[in-house]
Design brief:
The protein is α/β, with parallel strands linked by helices. It folds into two domains: about 325 residues, Adenylosuccinate Synthetase, Chain A, domain 1 (3-Layer(aba) Sandwich); about 100 residues, Adenylosuccinate Synthetase, subunit A, domain 2, CATH 1.10.300. It has 13 helices and 20 strands. The strands form five sheets. It has a ten-stranded mixed β-sheet with strand order 9-7-5-2-10-1-11-15-19-20, sandwiched between helices. Strands 14, 16, 17 and 18 form a four-stranded mixed β-sheet that branches. The protein has a two-stranded antiparallel sheet with strand order 3-4. A hairpin with a 2-residue loop joins strand 16 and strand 17. Helix 4 packs across helix 5 and helix 6 crosses helix 7. The protein is globular and about 65 Å long. The two termini are about 25 Å apart. The structure holds guanosine-5'-diphosphate, 6-O-phosphoryl inosine monophosphate and magnesium ion (MG).
Length: about 450
């Protein structure tokens, strides 16, 4: 019966891949509920590093079923490459992957539209991943999108591709870059071929998940992006085009809210953001550069340098509220090992007033100044700590300050990319099925 959601609680890249892979030790199924190739979830096992984009972060565990849900948008050629790379690395993908027949597809026209908009002189530049994710969700909401199951209806496919091409061209002001505007005949033929290659994986995944939940399976619902990138609850318009918050697990997988037993929020011990949009605690200075260097903060999907800054408790409190997070996983903790002092943003100041919650408008957030509480640094290596008590006192105080300011317990602390660089707190209010401390 139990389903748990793992949700990004900042602007994405919080280390969801590492945490999901870790928690999968106790799960039967891992199911991705949103986003698409814009996600990049990194998992480090021994000396191997995997960057997953569509495929759930449970795939490295041999007996765990991985589901790509209906809420995910798929770029078939890059998904097939992901599958091929994992198979070449000896991972049992064929046996363990299922893809929703209702998932929508990204076509070349969507990518062209994304790129053309980002390069247009006018309009809001969002700094998207330029992979066509936003326009594909637009097609879905506009009710002309192409779904995976339609690749098997050869008679209708060409007309459906023509419709997506035409509508996407219109949505983009009439013209797409030539490279991303191939003849529909070519796209229909390519996508029919991709469909055949994906056919063994395609399933009614909502039926599968509900049946397995009825049988008592533990399902981990893996979020992509983060709460501040959610289409409704994020910092609109500097967001992605899907529901990345915990609520998206129900719509993106086809399971009832009554099925969900708990939500685990993944939070970096500081903040990063990639792409445009306000970021109150950003340190566009040597401190930020040091975080970037120590945390290797470059995008797993685009390679772009991530903007870095201090921990923002306003953002974290908001995420806890929106997702009802009951256990936090605090990641990249080791990155802060070298700092003399570590500020935490506890509130904002705007127009002479103190704000404790996130304002709805991007312009207001941009004008907010962070109010900091400055914590002493610990200036020692935490990467080998395996229990909370192994951490130096100042590091424990930093964790406790976050718990106090955010109003949620930190059950997991990650001090390195590998599985064993993790503290599972025995005293934290962590769900019973989590791996226990060694
Ligand atoms: P995701 O999108 O939330 O899965 O996160 P990403 O994989 O895009 O980015 C997180 C990065 O931090 C990856 O390179 C991880 O290997 C790495 N990482 C995860 N946890 C830790 C940690 O505790 N310490 C350090 N130093 N790196 C970590
Ligand atoms: P994971 O799952 C960080 C950001 C983009 C851009 C905005 C919109 O790895 O945490 P899009 O291409 O989605 O239309 O871009 O969202 N973005 C992410 N940032 N991590 C991600 O995924 C992201 N997915 C999208 O940089 O600002
Ligand atoms: Mg990422």
């Amino acid at each position: 019966m139990p389903a748990f959601v793992v949700v990004g609680s900042q602007w994405g890249d919080e280390g969801k891949g590492k945490i999901v892979d870790l928690l999968t030790e106790r799960a039967d199924i891992v199911a991705r509920y949103g986003g698409g190739p814009n996600a990049g979830h990194t998992i480090c096992v021994d000396d191997r590093r995997f960057a997953l984009h569509h495929i759930p972060s449970g795939i490295l565990r041999p007996d765990v079923l991985c589901v790509i849900g209906n809420g995910v948008v798929i770029e078939p050629a890059s998904l097939l490459k992901e599958v091929g790379d994992l198979v070449a690395a000896g991972i049992a993908v064929e046996k363990n992957l299922r893809i929703s027949d209702r998932a929508h597809l990204i076509l070349p026209y969507h990518r062209g539209c994304d790129i053309a908009r980002e390069e247009a002189a006018r309009g809001v530049k969002l700094g998207t991943t330029r992979l066509g994710v936003g326009p594909a969700y637009e097609s879905k909401a506009g009710r002309y999108g192409l779904r995976l199951a339609e690749l098997f209806d050869r008679g209708a496919l060409l007309d459906r591709v023509r419709a997506v091409a035409g509508m996407t061209r219109n949505a983009c002001g009439g013209a797409l870059p030539a490279e991303f505007d191939p003849p529909p005949e070519t796209v229909a033929a390519d996508y029919a071929r991709h469909g055949e290659a994906l056919r063994p994986f395609v399933a009614d995944t909502a039926a599968l998940l509900n049946a397995r939940l009825d049988q008592g399976a533990v399902v981990l619902c893996e979020g992509a992006q983060g709460t501040l990138l959610d289409l409704d609850h994020g910092g609109y318009p500097f967001v992605t085009s899907s529901t990345s918050t915990a609520g998206g697990a129900c719509t993106g997988l086809g399971i009832s809210p009554i099925r969900v037993d708990g939500v685990i929020g993944v939070l970096k011990a500081y903040s990063t953001r990639v792409g445009e949009g306000p970021f109150p605690t950003e340190q566009d200075n040597p401190q930020g550069a040091l975080i970037r260097e120590r945390g290797r903060e470059f995008g797993s999907t685009t390679g772009r340098p991530r903007r870095c800054g201090w921990f923002d408790a306003v953002v974290a409190r908001y995420s806890v509220m929106i997702n009802q997070i009951e256990c936090l996983a605090l990641t990249l903790f080791d990155v802060l090992d070298g700092f003399d002092e570590i500020p935490i943003c506890v509130a904002y100041e705007h127009d002479g007033r103190r704000l404790e919650t996130l304002p709805p408008n991007a312009d207001v957030l941009r004008a907010c100044r962070p109010v900091y509480e400055v914590m002493p640094g610990w200036k020692s290596d935490t990467s080998m700590a395996r229990r909370f008590d192994d951490l130096p006192p100042a590091a424990r105080d930093y964790v406790r300050a976050i718990e106090r300011l955010v109003g949620c317990e930190v059950g997991i602390i990650s001090t390195g990319p590998q599985r064993d660089r993790t503290i599972i707190r025995a005293d934290g209010r962590i769900p019973v099925w989590l791996p226990t401390a060694a």
